[in-house]
Amino acid sequence: MGEAPEIQIQMINVKEDKDPNSVDQTNGSNQSTITQHRSYKWWLLLAIFTFFLLAGQSVGTLLGRLYYDKGGKSKWMATLVQPAGFPVLIPFYYLSAYKTSTETSGNLINPPSLLLLSAMYFALGVLLAVVGMLYSLGLLYLPVSTFSLICASSLAFNAFFSFFLNSQKFTPFIINSLVLLTLSSTLLVFQNNSSGSATVSKGKYVIGFVCTVAASAGGGLMLALTQFCFQKVLKKQTFKVVLDMIIYQSLVATLVILVGLFASGEWKSLDKEMEGFKLGKVSYVNILVWTAIAWQVFSIGVVGLIFEVSSLFANVISTLGLPIVPVLAMIFFHDSMTGVKVISIVLAIWGFVSYVYQHYLDDCNSKTEKV
């Protein structure tokens, strides 16, 4: 009986010796499991945002061209449908707001003032309206395949603005990517082939080209500013913040475009435009509605990628979708696939691969540093 306490003490000591290691191992395995789950969840979210961006961009661009080809003439209406679909996001907004309110609020930081938020959303909304009008003018005067390829220059503008606003680093591969994508869009100014679309003069073709390049510059600036606002102003990581960014700036842009629509007097001709639409009134409304929805899907994708990664990454994914639109345009609008367009597509893909390879190198370097 006298040995029993000694045996128990020894057993307790053995457990105490083993417990720290077992706890470390358990914690390590739990942490690695959590990291893996987070990684899978993050990559899945990234894939969803990428799909939204590519699908919304392709469908929105093609429906916008279809609107013009079948009798649509209002530049303000073509611009309005780009931000005006934001009400479809309101149910998701309240769901995300409810989910956020049920979570712990211990990580909250000082929120920005209402005046600062109002100024931010107003500035982004006005810029969105201007960029939308420039894109509408470009799509009016250019074949949809040419239009989409010129939009590749947005990546170069976004990299330039990100360098100053978000401290974007430039490497040889990124510079190579920007040069190739710039050449890809520049090649298209030397041709004027509008087969499959309404024939336009050389002067209107140049106007369309200039407006599309200007819209790409404005779009690149807007993406960089959006990332800057996420990092420096909002400083939150919830899906509600993403929806805030989309809904409020879309609301401002919609109001600005409505003012332009009524001030220009184009609203007076919308009834005649609907009556004379080649596909009928129902198709006219459906095209506008689905165009608006497509651009909201695109907005979720692009803002989500900016939120999760960076504005430059979101623009690179957008560039990845460029070959999709010319191929679809060739099928549905009978746009000619000339040698210049093929070279432009190859250069755009080459530029995209160069940028992705730089991210691959960065990922490898970060892994070696951790080891």
Overall strand count: 0
Largest sheet: none
Helix content: over 70%
How far apart lie the N and C ends? 54 Å
Strand content: under 5%
Number of H/I helices: 14
What is the radius of gyration computed over CA atoms, rounded to a whole number of angstroms?
26 Å
Label the structural class.
mainly alpha
Q: Regions with pLDDT < 50 over 5+ consecutive residues?
A: 1-38
Strand/helix succession: HHHHHHHHHHHHHH
- Name the shape in a single word: globular
Mean pLDDT: 79
Q: Secondary-structure blueprint of this entry?
A:
Layout: H1 4-69, H2 75-80, H3 90-102, H4 114-141, H5 144-150, H6 153-165, H7 172-186, H8 202-234, H9 239-264, H10 270-275, H11 281-308, H12 311-320, H13 324-332, H14 339-370
Question: What keywords describe this structure?
Answer:
371 residues, 79% helix, single chain, 14 helices
Could you characterize the architecture of this molecule?
There is one protein chain. It is built from 14 helices and no strands. With 371 residues, it is mainly alpha-helical. The longest helix is centred in the first third of the chain and has 66 residues, at 4-69.
What would a concise description of this structure say?
With 371 residues, this protein is mainly alpha-helical.
